[in-house]
Amino acid sequence: MAGRINDDDVKAVRDAVPIDSVVSEYLQLRSAGGGNLKGLCPFHDEKSPSFQVSPGKGLFHCFGCQEGGDTIAFVMKIDHLSFSETVERLAAKAGITLRYEEGGYNPSHQRGERIRLIEAHQAAADFYVRALESPEAEIGRKFLAERGFDQDAATHFRVGYSPAGWDHLTRYLRGKGFSDKELITSGLSQDGRRGPIDRFRGRLMWPISDTAGEIVGFGARKLRDDDNGPKYLNTPETPIYKKSQVLYGIDLAKKDIAKASRAVVVEGYTDVMACHLAGVTTAIATCGTAFGNDHIKILRRLLMDNGSARVIFTFDGDSAGQKAALRAFEDDQKFAAETYIAIAPDGMDPCDLRLAKGDDAVRDLVEPRTPLFEFALRQIVGRYDLETPAGRAAALDEAAAVVAKIKTSSVQREVAVQLAGFVGILDQEFVVRRVAQLARWARDKGGDGRGDPRGGRGPGGPQDRRGGTPQQPVQTPAAPSGPALNLRSPAHRTERELLKLALQKPALVSPAFDAYGADEFTAPPYAAVRQCIAEAGGAERGLGDNREYLVAVMDAAPNNTVRSLVTELAVEVFMGRTIDETYAGMQLVHVRLRAVDRRINEVQGSLARLGSNVAPDDLAAAQNEVWVLQQYAQSLRAKGADAL
């Protein structure tokens, strides 16, 4: 049996896969200056980006929740994989064949569960695509053609067909080496009377991928009248498929969503296809569930929550579509993006609209028309008899509570004025005051579950503490354990800069830095990092392979708190404008000079406490040490780094 992965292969994988390319599969990254990139942290909810990636060092660090590490650590954390599973996945991406300590090359039975399930889905997708070309699949090809999708469209979206027999796919995957247990766990097969049988039979198949582009499930559409199952049948919940955490088409749309700062949410697989083929390449859809909080998190990481971002929902014009729109509005305030609703005049979905009126009509449909809050207000007000005072009062009470949840006060006032017009109340200021009163009550009670994502307050501020519903309070990231750092202290600031230099630009402080002891760093966390650098071979080791050096420093960390601080210092920008030998020399001198002054004070303090009780020899030795230290301090002040 194969054992641990060869260390050289792990290093090769770490070096071969750029961390920014991996991270950008999950969130949008923008320049943070100094060669770093930033984005919204995928590991905790935040209002502004505090997650930074350093491509040059191969590290990431979140200054909000303190998560950090290299490419392998990122994938392990975000996809809940073991170390071996992560290395195997990244190796496959880079085309690297792994060796194991006891010999053998990447034995399939040693692969982690997630990787095996992903491979099973990939094999199943290939099987379904080929099956769509079979005579039996004529009904599926006809279904696509009737909706305006030719073979090229089917190929682009990898649409396939599941044969109507009991176990065609099951037997095929067994032949590929997958066990019955893996097939059942994946959701591709289910238990039958005589063993596993295919879950999907005689249906048109759409592969559902995660943000990284890996197939994790399928959506299956009924084609025959004798099929007693539901119209759409999706993969059940599995270790890799959670319907509340996937969006169909996200793998195809994510780059354009990030680039355009716009996402279009439609209702079905064919709607996504129609939109993309019409040129609306930011379209995505949920998979058998309502648009919810986890879907919002996915889009927020791509949209970066900038004020110009837009999310457009398209729903059928029927009552079910209107209810879906109102449900979407319930989560509207969790976006910083502006949200809109688009309903075709004839109530057609994008697929039908493309068939009836062409691509231009689809593109025109998704241009923002009606703000989602306006649609919601009109739906609420429309339920009441506005011809009577009682009806207008009841409509105002319900709708005003909705307006009170709007993000910014200026927009809230403007919409309150609009509400007065919807309800037919001439006294606009009365409605404005009513809305403001409800908003204050909500804040005083601890929130309505809708903090302002653009309110400009960082994690842990008053607005954060008010966020979240009573059932699901917003969790403020836990502060890292260990002694507090006082960055207003000149000593602490200088020690921090010196450690950043030792980690990021070791050539500027070597070899002098390696002569510094951990006791020269007054902040215990910084002393711990200094010790890690020493155990990793010193800053001089960083003159070679800087990434290998940083990995060694992190490996030397005694706990996650110190490891997190290492990644933080390794990606943080410097305080100075020009980072050169002069700047590095200043930090070296300041840290050493403060250490010398502290030692002088310690010796003089001891002598003062002992007074006349000190032995003559000890007194002479102490006085000599003070004299030498004073001369050294004078030299440091006069000559700077040349005196080190």
Describe the structure in your own words.
With 644 residues, this protein is of the alpha+beta class. It folds into 5 domains: 104 residues, DNA Primase, Chain A (Alpha-Beta Complex); 129 residues, DNA primase, catalytic core, N-terminal domain (DNA primase DNAg catalytic core, N-terminal domain); 94 residues, 3-Layer(aba) Sandwich (Dna Topoisomerase Vi A Subunit, Chain: A, domain 2), CATH 3.40.1360.10; 62 residues, no CATH class; 154 residues. 48% of the residues lie in helices and 11% in strands. It has 26 helices and 16 strands. The strands form 4 sheets. Strands 1-2-3-4-5 form a 5-stranded antiparallel beta sheet. Strand 7 and strand 8 form a beta hairpin. Helix 1 crosses helix 4, helix 3 packs across helix 4 and helix 25 packs antiparallel against helix 26. The protein is flat and about 105 Å long. About 7% of the residues have low confidence.
What layout of secondary structure does this protein have?
Layout: H1 7-16, H2 19-23, E1 30-33, E2 36-39, E3 51-54, E4 59-62, E5 68-70, H3 71-79, H4 83-94, H5 113-131, H6 138-146, H7 151-156, E6 160-162, H8 168-175, H9 180-186, E7 189-192, E8 195-198, E9 203-209, E10 215-222, E11 232-234, H10 250-260, E12 262-266, H11 269-277, E13 283-285, H12 293-303, E14 310-314, H13 319-330, E15 338-342, H14 350-357, H15 359-365, E16 370-371, H16 372-381, H17 389-403, H18 409-423, H19 428-444, H20 462-466, H21 490-504, H22 524-535, H23 546-555, H24 560-571, H25 581-610, H26 616-639
Parallel strand pairs: 12-13, 12-14, 14-15
Antiparallel strand pairs: 1-2, 2-3, 3-4, 4-5, 6-9, 7-8, 9-10, 10-11, 15-16
Helix pairs in contact: 1-4, 3-4, 5-9, 11-14, 13-16, 14-15, 16-17, 16-18, 17-18, 17-19, 18-19, 21-22, 21-24, 21-25, 22-23, 23-24, 25-26
